[in-house]
């Protein structure tokens, strides 16, 4: 089977925003794209068919750390990989678990070999090395797999950030070698994306971009942003990275973010995004719509019988009313969380789809300015 390929269709006038097409063995992805997060093999409260029909997702994300702990690689291999296990027949990307090791796991010890950590589930001890993480991702069988990296906290002192970045680079070389030494398990190609690190230091970020670019991977990721730094700093370092990463490869900004974050980062040349925000915030009553942000628990929506979002052309957004959705949350009904998650994911996919159309039309820069104000509006 063929390795991932990327066709850059156009770059918008007056912007770094790009429209492209990623081809994988499980289908095409039109960029810019948002990837719903299915951490443990499921996007919370949403079925695979709803992801296709209502959300129109082109690719979803899974996580190595969580899938390794449960159901485990033996179960995934017996099923024939994650695609067969969860019934999703479109592309999948897996995060390497590096961020989870540093944010969730207890008593972690970082050394050259890898990271020793305790499971957040039962306290059992495990070692993640570049080699073992590649092996686990081979078992999961995602189309796009991430290199094992260390994600330093914000803020980090310069010396620590530099040491961490250099360790990430050495781990990348071991990831590449491990993949070269092991075959794909399921008859289709798995594609490695290296991850740029370097915290919020310009020289380190530039050096990391240059190192990652030298590996000539089929795509590249930017990590270590959206971890607590101010938004303007995130935008500054995103732009620095896109200026120093290859033009002809897709660029993935990990863990970002709000709708306005996504628009600003598309403007700076990012092609791929993921974030738990649409589903996590949705389950807590924050609804993203084409008219702005709604706290559906507010009493003002109790007798508002207008559709959740008349600007979206799908059954969920147009059929159910704001009053009914609020009632579900007040009554603590599971359906409320499901509808909110579907609305938010549909909105995110609509937003990147609209951005793509305006990039192709050549008026993205002017459209983005008004859209940022619109999606930030508090209803």
TrEMBL record:
Homodimer. Within each dimer, one monomer is responsible for RNA recognition and catalysis, while the other monomer binds to the replacement base PreQ1. This is Queuine tRNA-ribosyltransferase. Its EC number is 2.4.2.29. The gene is tgt. Belongs to the queuine tRNA-ribosyltransferase family. GO terms for biological process: tRNA queuosine(34) biosynthetic process. The lineage of its organism: Bacteria, Pseudomonadati, Bacteroidota, Chitinophagia, Chitinophagales. It is an enzyme of class 2 (transferase). It comes from the Bacteria. The active site is at residues 95, 274. Gene3D superfamilies: Queuine tRNA-ribosyltransferase-like. It catalyses: 7-aminomethyl-7-carbaguanine + guanosine(34) in tRNA = 7-aminomethyl-7-carbaguanosine(34) in tRNA + guanine.
């Amino acid at each position: 089977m063929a390795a991932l390929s990327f066709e850059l269709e156009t770059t918008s006038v007056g912007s770094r925003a790009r429209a492209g097409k990623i081809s994988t063995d499980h289908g095409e992805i039109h960029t810019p794209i948002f990837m719903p997060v299915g951490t443990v093999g499921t996007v919370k409260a949403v079925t695979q068919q709803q992801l296709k029909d209502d959300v129109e997702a082109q690719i979803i994300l899974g996580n190595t750390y969580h899938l390794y702990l449960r159901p485990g690689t033996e179960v995934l291999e017996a099923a024939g990989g994650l695609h067969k296990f969860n019934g999703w027949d479109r592309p999948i990307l897996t995060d390497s678990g590096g961020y989870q090791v540093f944010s969730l796991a207890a008593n972690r010890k970082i050394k050259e070999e890898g990271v020793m950590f305790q499971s957040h589930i039962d306290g059992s001890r495990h070692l993640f090395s570049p080699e073992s993480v590649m092996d686990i991702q081979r078992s999961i069988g995602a189309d796009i797999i991430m290199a094992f990296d260390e994600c330093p906290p914000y803020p980090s002192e310069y010396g620590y950030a530099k040491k961490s970045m250099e360790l990430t680079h050495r781990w990348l070389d071991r990831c590449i070698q491990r993949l070269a030494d092991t075959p794909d398990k399921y008859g289709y190609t798995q594609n490695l994306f290296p991850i740029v690190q370097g915290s919020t230091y310009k020289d380190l970020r530039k050096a990391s971009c240059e190192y990652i670019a030298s590996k000539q991977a089929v795509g590249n990721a930017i990590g270590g942003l959206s971890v607590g730094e101010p938004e303007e700093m995130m935008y500054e370092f995103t732009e620095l990275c896109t200026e120093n990463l290859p033009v002809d490869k897709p660029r993935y900004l990990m863990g970002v973010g709000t709708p306005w974050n996504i628009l600003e980062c598309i403007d700076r040349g990012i092609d791929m995004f993921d974030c738990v925000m649409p589903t996590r915030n949705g389950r807590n009553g924050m609804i993203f719509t084409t008219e702005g942000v709604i706290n559906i628990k507010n009493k003002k929506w109790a007798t508002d019988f207008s559709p959740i979002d008349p600007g979206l052309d799908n059954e969920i957004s147009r059929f159910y009313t704001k009053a009914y959705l609020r009632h579900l949350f007040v009554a603590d009904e599971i359906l409320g969380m499901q509808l909110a998650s579907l609305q938010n994911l549909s909105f995110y996919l609509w937003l990147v789809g609209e951005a793509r159309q305006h990039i192709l039309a050549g008026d993205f820069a002017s459209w983005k300015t008004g859209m940022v104000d619109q999606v930030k509006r508090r209803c």
